[in-house]
Every structure is written in C-alpha cells, then in structure tokens.
Predict the structure.
Amino acid sequence: MKRNKNFENIILVALVIFGIAGTYFMLGGKSSESDAGQQPPIAVVSDYSSYAAPTSTIADKKQKQHLNIAGAMHTGQPLQFEIGSFNENAEYTLELGNGKTRTLKEKDFYFTYDTPGNYKVKLSVKYNGKTQVLFAENIFIDSKERYATAY
C-alpha cells in the first residue's frame, strides 16, 4: 500500500512539473526582465499580418508592390516606407493618413506614429505631367503599452 502511495506522489509531482513547463512555454518563455519589455521588430510588407488588424482596402496585388511598409506596427517605433519601382525623374507624394504629406526624393522614408489608430497611407506619383495613385491602404498602429509583460 505504501508503495502505491509513493508511486502516486511521483506521478503527481511529474504532472505538476509538466504543467509548469507547459505554461512557461505557452507564455513565451521569458526568463529575464531585461528583454521582457522589448518586442522584436516584425517585418511587415503591406499585409499587416503581425501586430495589426487586417484593414487592407486594395484587392489589386500589383498596387501593393509599389510601396512596402516594414517595422513594428505600434507607436514610438519607426516604420520604413520603401518605393518598389523608384524613378529619380518622378515626383512621389506620400500621405501618412494623419494630415501629414511628404514629397519623397529617395526610395526609402522613415516615419514614427505617436498616436495609435487607423491611418490611410497613400502613395502618388507625378510623371510627365500626369499624377497616378500607386498605393492606398489603411494601416493600424497599436499602442506600445499593449505589449507590456505582467509579472
């Protein structure tokens, strides 16, 4: 009888250890406080599958190739806007959706959103007197606080 009780205790301890280990891995396995508050940058190419609600407004994938947006989609983190087919002789205008517009002279542009929310990003090109919208899509910028880790 005592042997069965010892066996039951061993099984119980093993289940508790496996439960703790499983919980640790399910919560991301953070082991130190130094990296707990930092999120790794997530590369996003205009589909916003990470850290953002899917808010795409364009179904034409050819238009999405004109502007790549990469970076963590939350406040305080710089986003890289890269024009796919940059032409030095064209004039590119990027509307950031927050009332700010930039005329781009280079292929890459960096911008940091300070306020969370939905923003309509629009890229237009003017070439030979004609203006054409190359890209228009809603993006969602989340607040950085959402990713705080509780201890």
Observations:
- Strands lie at 67-70, 78-83, 91-95, 101-104, 108-112, 117-127, 130-141.
- The longest strand covers residues 130-141.
- Confidence is low (pLDDT under 50) at residues 31-60.
- Residues 37 and 148 are 6 Å apart (CA to CA).
